[in-house]
Amino acid sequence: MRGKIKDKTDTLFMFGGLIYLDDFQEIWIKLKQRGTNFILSKFNFNSNKRTISAFNTNFEHANWWIIPHLKQRMNAKISGDISVGYEQYVSGKYFDQDTPKVMISLGCGAGSHEITFANINKTLSVNGYDLSEQLIKTANLKAEKEGLKNVDFLVADVYKLSFENESVDFFLFNAALHHFKDIEHFITNSILPALKKDGLLIINEYVGPNRMHFSNQQIAFCNEVLEKNVPESFRKILSTNILKNKVYRHGTIRMTISDPSECIDSENILPVIHKHFNIVEEKALGGNILMPVLKHISHHFIDGGKDCLEQLCNIEDEYLKSNPSQFVFGIYTKNDNYD
């Protein structure tokens, strides 16, 4: 894309990123997609309950991660093969199938990745923890259905968990670490002591700006991409009759009300990890363009729009040549100066 990018960002009601006019549009979209009860669930002084309600699975998503073509793209960026997911890749490259090991997953959600690891590695003991009783119940039912004896899911507040020193072989964070506050304190007090000297920290994470406060430059670029590269036939927002004509900004107030944990300290994930760990491998997954552009309209691309998707992927790859990736897959070991 060439030429000067016009800044189409919403400057009215910005107040230092606290609130945008876009927030009211987002609330209306959520109301249409998820109903009145979901909106009412946010009027709760208990922040944990607001967080849990954000992960209710009883509705149709229209975000970029549901698109099969983009799942294959992620596989290729991590393993080099569109058909090989990161669980299979990590297991084959780093796991000793003959030696019993322990994996801890914090913020495991419905446990799909943990169950995959458990299926591939029968000597691996997998323990997943999450705040949501509904998601933990779903995870345990799925594990039971698959006859797995080496995986268990428990309801827990991760901030209150503690593990014996050097008792964990692998810590896994899949789209979870960006929900944890004070990353420096959490890593140094909960992860480093418990991880074995030769253990691995495995992340598949959003590591972009806190509260998704994307720069004006990024928002303007995404708006231009949306306008020029996504046909109107692919822009109807799920469960509405309106077309997506702009990328919606995230105000801190709305995000805090919706999910107090969302991207609360995400921009410090990589700096903290790089401070305390050695990089075994770290791969840029992008998302800078694809996530904001495809939000609310991804359902159009589940079975179609391949040419459009390829064009968007090429644009993002070019963008990443001069901008840091906002999603990263990484594997790390404790560095030598950890005592």
Largest sheet: 7 strands, mixed
Number of separate structural domains? 1
Strand order of the largest sheet: 3-2-1-4-5-7-6
The quaternary structure here is single chain
How many β strands by DSSP?
7
Number of helices: 13
Structural category is alpha/beta
What is the average of the pLDDT values? 89
What is the rounded Rg? 20 Å
CATH H-level homologous superfamily name? Vaccinia Virus protein VP39
Note poorly predicted spans: 1-9
Q: How much of the residues is beta strand, in percent?
A: 15-25%
Kindly identify the CATH topology: Rossmann fold
**Gross CATH architecture:** 3-Layer(aba) Sandwich
- Overall 3D shape: globular
* Name of the level-1 CATH class: Alpha Beta
As a percent range, the share of helical residues equals: 25-40%
- Give, in order, the helices and strands: HHHHHEHEHEEHEHHHEHHE
